[in-house]
């Protein structure tokens, strides 16, 4: 493995650094999935993390590692990373400016502001928001905290993997979400260093799976971004990807893709059988099992990575009417 990879030592250091910032989320048995697949299936309830996703781990670690002279932090992210960075910065008394386009819905804006950051609206696309974030770095002395391709972020996300091994020492199969690959890279590094024989299987949505297309091509490539129920898994991996592409390539045993109906079935199962409210991205591990895309061998852990979903969409998924609702809105 390349020396530039984040290592278990980096992850253990991150764990000590962010211990006061994050919740050690529980892992629980899933009686219904265990019965269905005749192996113990357990769920890591990371959607209950503060801010509603694991992203607080990486953001807290990156903010804690900043030099004391920094003027503030910035990112062009409207979703879970923006939320997490806002809170991580506020807790350490560092100004945060989250750059976003005017297309971002009002509720997401309000959430960023509630967490204590400035939501800066620039331009009509995420690209223009990115330009403003880069300007803050170049001209105003801000530090950019990217959502995945950053060693401190990957190490922070990896702390989830160390918890999984402690909570389920006999784990043999692990299902982990993949978008930009920060979560999967960190978690796979922790788990495979501690337990080399664990199968770590990435899961993405079929619509716009940038990491899968890049792994197939042998280098980072761009794919068209499409609307999906797993919206937190959308977006590219960056053509100049430095870290997560190589780590996912070398550490994941497989990367499976799911249809929208399969993702919806995962959200519905989480609610009806496990009594957990998760967003589309959070449900893809369960969904991959239910869809038969991954055959669980031995004790199996699926990570529920986030819960930030609009409740009207969640209701429509549970009721099976989300396609109609989407067509009416279009
Ligand atoms: C960001 C995110 C992911 C994917 O994480 P990456 O590090 O980008 O691969 C998965 N689930 C949720 C809920 C997320 O917010």
Automatic annotation (TrEMBL):
PROSITE patterns: DEHYDRATASE_SER_THR (PS00165). Residues 22-306 form the Tryptophan synthase beta chain-like PALP domain. It comes from the Bacteria. It holds the Pfam family PALP. Its cofactor is pyridoxal 5'-phosphate. Keywords: Lyase, Pyridoxal phosphate. PANTHER family: L-THREONINE DEHYDRATASE CATABOLIC TDCB (PTHR48078:SF6), THREONINE DEHYDRATASE, MITOCHONDRIAL-RELATED (PTHR48078). This is Hydroxyectoine utilization dehydratase EutB. It comes from Ollibium composti. The lineage of its organism: Bacteria, Pseudomonadati, Pseudomonadota, Alphaproteobacteria, Hyphomicrobiales.
């Amino acid at each position: 493995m390349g020396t530039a990879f984040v290592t278990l030592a980096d992850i253990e250091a991150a764990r000590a650094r962010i211990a006061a910032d994050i919740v050690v989320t529980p892992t629980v048995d899933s009686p219904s999935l265990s019965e269905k697949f005749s192996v113990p299936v357990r769920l890591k309830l990371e959607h209950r993390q503060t801010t509603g996703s694991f992203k607080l781990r990486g953001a807290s670690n990156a903010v804690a590692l900043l030099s004391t002279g920094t003027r503030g932090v910035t990112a062009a992210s409207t979703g879970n990373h923006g939320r997490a960075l806002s809170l991580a910065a506020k807790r350490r008394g560092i100004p945060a400016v989250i750059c976003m386009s005017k297309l971002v819905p009002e509720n997401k804006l309000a959430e960023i502001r509630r967490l204590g950051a400035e939501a800066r609206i620039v331009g009509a696309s995420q690209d223009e928001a990115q330009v403003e974030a880069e300007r803050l770095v170049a001209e105003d002395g801000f530090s950019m905290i990217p959502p995945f391709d950053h060693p401190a972020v990957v190490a922070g996300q990896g702390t989830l993997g160390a918890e999984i091994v402690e909570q389920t020492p006999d784990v043999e199969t692990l299902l982990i979400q993949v978008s930009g690959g920060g979560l999967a890279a960190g978690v796979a590094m922790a788990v495979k260093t501690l337990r080399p024989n664990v199968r770590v299987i990435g899961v993405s949505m079929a619509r716009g799976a940038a990491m899968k297309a890049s792994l197939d091509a042998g280098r980072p490539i761009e794919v068209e971004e499409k609307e999906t129920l797993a919206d937190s898994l959308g977006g590219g991996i960056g053509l100049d990807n430095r870290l997560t592409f190589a780590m996912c390539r070398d550490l994941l045993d497989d990367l499976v893709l799911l249809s929208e109906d399969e993702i919806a079935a995962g959200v519905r199962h989480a609610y009806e059988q496990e009594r957990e409210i998760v967003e589309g991205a959070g449900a893809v591990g369960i969904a991959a099992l239910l869809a038969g895309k991954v055959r669980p061998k031995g004790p199996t852990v699926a990570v529920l990575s986030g819960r930030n979903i609009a409740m009207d969409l969640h209701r429509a998924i549970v009721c099976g009417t989300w396609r109609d609702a989407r067509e009416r809105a279009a």
